[in-house]
Amino acid sequence: MITIGDFDHASSRVRAIQYIPLLENEANLLVKWIPRIPTKPKNLFSKWFIFPIKKRYLFLKRTYHLLLKKWDIIFIQKIFIPNWLLKKINKNGIPIIYDFDDAIYIVQKGQKSNELKTSQMLKAASKVIVSTHDLLPFCEKNNTKPIIITSAVDIEKIKPIKKSYNEIITIGWIGSHWTTDFLKDINVPLKNISENYNVRILVVGAKPGFQLEKLKIDSKKWSLEREADLINEMDIGIMPLPNTDFAKAKGGYKLYLYMAAGIPIIASPVGINSKIIRHGVNGFLAKDNEDWIEYLSKLIEDKLLRDKMGQSGKEIIIENYSLKVCFEKLIGITKISC
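Above: the chain's sequence. Below: its structure in token form.
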């Protein structure tokens, strides 16, 4: 198993690493896991000295295991492997499962070869897994028919708690440094709501120093150990997204987290969000500022509605997006590949 990052990298943890115990204990597979990037450095010494050494070591280790070891399956999560090495793996008859959950093929600054590299990965793979329907067209353009496995939530770790009545309603967002700016799209609705209701705006995992104009933000660092507790501080979960090709391909994982914790959700009707949210059942789809204000107001004013939508969301997660459900799909693919 080759992943782009370590436990602190959300995509790697969710799309691959969390399956390792199940693959070993329930499928009786022996998994050798090698991340491309080590855990993020915590200080300057680690950043400039330890981190580069670890990264170089992982590169050599990854190349050695891919080039010289005989595996039953090689599972690659999101990263690009050199084409010469892919050909060597194919020549050795080792099946590759390639998984990606973002539009990694979109050309971005300094990454003009991404489309070609993604195409090469698809061509070399025996099976391809994607997280959303919006990634299908690129795969089909490359004569690949992928299998959709959404990003799974471990409902044993993320689950509802009994909340005491609180006059202050917490509107929460969880994400990464680079997705933080999506919150700017709803600065106006959040400002309006904060002026009219007793609310707290909690953001988890935002980039350092992030603030919204004329709005008080309670920003907390993300950590795996505190993730469940931080989510359970929220009464309403939000996911604003711009209507761009890259955003459309996002996997909606933060919505799954909110739902697993029994929290009602509001999101932009972009990409998979429109499939995850059953409007008026487990949350609302907000297309503009007026919608955001209306739906936030409804949920803030009505605790019974929050509870009802939260319960519906939890039931949807158990049925469709839990770790158990997604693992059954994944193990079926590994059996086919073997």
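Residues 44-68 form the longest helix (25 residues).
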